[in-house]
Write a structure and sequence with these properties.
alpha/beta, single chain, 3-stranded parallel beta sheet
Length: 282
C-alpha cells in the first residue's frame, strides 16, 4: 500500500476553549492525510487561522461565552446550541466546494489513516450519508441522546442537511437532545452507511459495567493501536480542554496516553510530544 497521503477535507467547530484540542486534531490528521479544513469559529480563532493556506475559516460564532450543556444554565445551553449548530454552515460550505462534508468534533484525533474503503464510499454518489453509532449498548442513554454520535459523520446532500437543520432548530419544542437526536430521525428516511466500531472511538463505549470489559481489546499491535482485530482510526475524548465539570473520559485519556508513550511508532511519539507541548502552554 502506498504511503502517499490521500487528499481529504474536514469540517469542524472551534472556539477559544477548544483551540488546543483542534490543534491536536489537525496535527494528527495531517500525519496521515493531505488536509483541507472548513472551520466554524469565533473571532479569536478566526484571527489566528484566517490566513492558513489550507483553511477556510467561517466567522459564524458570535456569542460572548461558550455554553455548558452539562452543568450550565438555560442560557449556557442556548449558547452551546448556537455554537453547535454552526456545523450546518461549515458542512454546507464544504458540500458546495468539495462535494461532501466530513465533520469531526474538535475533541477527536487520529492514530491511523482513514481506510481506502472509506474514501471509496465518500466518492460513491449513491452514498449520501455516513453516520457513527454510539455503540454504547446503553438503551436508556440512546433513547435520550440518540443512536448516532454527531461528532463524526459524512454528508453529501444539502437537502438532507437542510432537513436535519430544521428538525434541530425545533429540538427544544420537540424535546430532542440538541442536534444529535434529530439525526436519528433523519437517518430513518435514507439509506445510510454506519461507520464501524474502530471509527470515532469515544470514551462512552467503555463506560459502564456492560462495556468496561472492552478495554482489554484496546492494545498495541504491530506498533499501532488496535481495538480487537482492527486499527483504531480516531479517538473521541477530551484531551486538553479545561472543562467546567469532571472529564468523564479521563480514564480513557490516561489509557490512550500510555499506549502512545510506550509505542515505538514514530508518528505516535511525535503526537505524544506535541500533546505534551500543548498541555504545557497557557
Amino acid at each position: 500500500m502506498s504511503d502517499k497521503k490521500r487528499e481529504i477535507a474536514f469540517c469542524t467547530t472551534v472556539t477559544e476553549s477548544y483551540y488546543k484540542e483542534f490543534l491536536l486534531l489537525k496535527y494528527s490528521a495531517e500525519q496521515y492525510h493531505k488536509c483541507r479544513w472548513v472551520i466554524s469559529c469565533d473571532k479569536g480563532i478566526y484571527d489566528k487561522i484566517k490566513y492558513d493556506v489550507n483553511v477556510d475559516a467561517l466567522f459564524n460564532i458570535h456569542i460572548q461565552r461558550e455554553g455548558d450543556h452539562v452543568t450550565g444554565t438555560d442560557e449556557d445551553a442556548k449558547n452551546f446550541n448556537d455554537t453547535t449548530f454552526t456545523k450546518f454552515e461549515s458542512c454546507r460550505f464544504s458540500i458546495e466546494k468539495y462535494g461532501y462534508a466530513i465533520f469531526l468534533d474538535s475533541d477527536t484525533f487520529f492514530v491511523n489513516p482513514l481506510e481506502e474503503k472509506f474514501f471509496r464510499m465518500v466518492e460513491n454518489s449513491d452514498i449520501r450519508l455516513m453516520a457513527s453509532p454510539h455503540y454504547s449498548d446503553n438503551a436508556l442513554s440512546i433513547a435520550d441522546a440518540g443512536y448516532y454520535n454527531s461528532g463524526m459523520f459524512v454528508i453529501k446532500c444539502e437537502e438532507i442537511l437542510d432537513r436535519w437543520q430544521v428538525l434541530s432548530f425545533f429540538q427544544k419544542d420537540l424535546n430532542l437532545y440538541f442536534e444529535q437526536k434529530p439525526l436519528e430521525f433523519i437517518v430513518r428516511e435514507h439509506f445510510v452507511v454506519d461507520l464501524p466500531f474502530n471509527y470515532n472511538l469515544g470514551w462512552w463505549r467503555f463506560d459502564g459495567d456492560m462495556v468496561y470489559d472492552r478495554l482489554k481489546y484496546l492494545k498495541l499491535r504491530e506498533n499501532k493501536i488496535y481495538i480487537g482485530d482492527y486499527p483504531v482510526v480516531n479517538f473521541h475524548v477530551h484531551m486538553l480542554k479545561e472543562l467546567k465539570y469532571g472529564n468523564m473520559g479521563d480514564f480513557f485519556k490516561i489509557i490512550i496516553l500510555n499506549l502512545l508513550e510506550k509505542s515505538k511508532n514514530s508518528k505516535y511519539t511525535d503526537l505524544f510530544e506535541y500533546y505534551t507541548t500543548l498541555e504545557g502552554e497557557p
